Amino acid sequence: MPVPKHKRIHYKTCPLCDASSFKELRRADCSGHRNYHRDVSPQMIWMRCDSCAHVFTDGYFGARALAALFGQSYEDEAVGYDIERQRHAWAPVIEKVTELRANRLGRWLDVGFLNGSAIFTAAEWGYQASGIDLRPRAVQGLAAFGFEAQCVALTDYTPPAPFDVISLFDVIEHMPHPRVAVAHARTILADDGLLVISTPNMDSMVWTALDQTNTNPYWKEVEHYHCFGRRALLDLLERCGFSGIHYAVGRRFRAGMELIARKTA
Ligand SMILES: [Zn+2]
Fold this sequence. Notes:
Layout: E1 9-10, E2 22-29, E3 43-49, E4 55-57, E5 59-60, H1 63-70, H2 83-100, E6 107-111, H3 117-125, E7 128-132, H4 136-144, E8 149-150, E9 163-169, H5 178-187, E10 189-200, H6 205-212, E11 226-227, H7 230-239, E12 242-249, E13 256-263
Parallel strand pairs: 6-7, 6-9, 7-8, 9-10
Antiparallel strand pairs: 1-5, 2-3, 3-4, 4-11, 10-13, 12-13
Helix pairs in contact: 2-3
């Protein structure tokens, strides 16, 4: 087997609880994933923490590996893709957040905004919506639609004023250090602000059924570093100064969940 050009940076401790003891859970071949790039290993090794049971890959990618993985572009990841159907897909989420905010709108930051439709739909409600993303092409695409967009990691982002809502739609599983990211989100969120997170739910029976038929796509997601269950995600949020206030089944991906949490004092 050829040696991959870009190796993963191995976790020395559990990315959620810092425990140094974790064991291999399973391996998967990610070479069939559309975002796979031959310069990274086709094998993914999933670990489980002995202390908190968090499930994560043995390591994450550095800047050069990410540049290779992000180097490919797909029509369905372009800002503005499928804009009419996407609007309908996002409306229930924006509506729920607005209800939980008792119709107080304000500033909404979407982290890792992909096709931009969550931002477009939030703007329709009257939010002052903006986004950050690590892909320069996405940032240019959102800016072309007249929205504020920056190419920066959440943990490096200091906005001029706090946000009222921060959303991480299908991005937390891609973040090398989710606890650091959630903690940073809290620092740039207003006092009663909301954090909205969607990610696959490994506690769901759909996930179990996918495992039973050996068709669970998530073990082979080359860009994912974590698998969360509802309880594990809630625990993370609570430890970072949030309280979970709403759970919903995610509508966009298999086994998906959506959690809304409020910043606590
Ligand atoms: Zn742990």
